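_Backbone structure tokens_
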Amino acid sequence: MTALPPLAYGYVRDDLLSDRDPSFSDKILRAAARSLGYALGTVFHEPTPQNATLPPAFVDLVRECRRAEAHTVLTLPGHLSGMSVCRMVLLAILDVRAEAAVQEVALTGRATMEAVAR
């Protein structure tokens, strides 16, 4: 019997993706998850932050992590920063509500580029 890899979820802010296709960020997170030994579930896409409330896609992410008992969230560098709610508060909410931690991943190196191309 083959053991399943642990589940991780993704989180990206669409306003930080520049002109790239949003699915490109999903490919980066999928490649990173594979290389880190995770199965990547849904990638939650946050629209442009509007006000000082918790970002709606982030709230959905916390709920899903808690429901699925997933303890890892993968994101791109800077995607939990620069919002009305500070990064430390978002990390604390994710830790307390879902017992999950964040790993920032970046697209670097030839192996990652090849994995994204798949």
